[in-house]
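[step 3/7] inverse_fold.run input=structure_tokens len=180
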């Protein structure tokens, strides 16, 4: 189980007692401010604990949903536009307006980790919005996966989500032409 420094202080009360737990091997320091009762911890768990309000999106989410087999170099996280810049080499941060950040956010179990991630319908909107930022082959691979899974998608939800973003008509035209 992962614990933040504050959670450790709630349990052990003092740095002295925390250090004693570290010395005897009952607790391990994973990185600054993060502790665990196990020596090896999932990187996804660490990212989720460090950035609890962030939402996995784009390349990370496409991989987690098996839309692609390309393992992302960094975890792509969406955060509020007013959030502090994440200075973690493992993370690529996408800033979103507060009004659209929570649209399509769900909680998902991935590799025994509970993560915040956008649902497939929101990710389709994101894929189209950031179309020019992806290599063509990568984009086409994901579009083909969406075509294969179209029966599992909520079309009305996609339309509702698209209306919340600028250029919603263009987004829906692209989805209509390339997915449906």
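[step 3/7] decode complete -> sequence:
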């Amino acid at each position: 189980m992962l614990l933040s420094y504050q959670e450790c202080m709630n349990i052990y009360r003092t740095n002295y007692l925390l250090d004693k737990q570290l010395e005897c091997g009952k607790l391990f320091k994973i990185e600054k401010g993060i502790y665990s009762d196990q020596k090896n911890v999932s990187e996804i768990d660490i990212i989720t604990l460090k950035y609890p309000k962030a939402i996995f999106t784009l390349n990370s989410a496409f991989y987690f949903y098996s839309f692609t087999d390309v393992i992302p170099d960094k975890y792509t996280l969406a955060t509020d536009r007013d959030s502090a810049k994440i200075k973690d080499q493992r993370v690529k941060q996408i800033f979103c307006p507060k009004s659209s950040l929570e649209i399509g956010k769900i909680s998902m179990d991935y590799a025994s980790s509970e993560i915040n991630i956008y649902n497939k319908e929101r990710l389709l909107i994101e894929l189209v919005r950031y179309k020019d930022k992806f290599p063509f082959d990568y984009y086409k691979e994901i579009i083909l996966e969406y075509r294969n899974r179209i029966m599992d998608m909520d079309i009305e939800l996609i339309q509702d989500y698209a209306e919340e973003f600028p250029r919603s008509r263009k987004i829906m035209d692209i989805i209509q032409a390339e997915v449906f």
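[step 4/7] annotate
The longest strand covers residues 75-80.
Strands lie at 2-4, 28-31, 34-36, 55-56, 75-80, 91-96, 105-110, 113-118.
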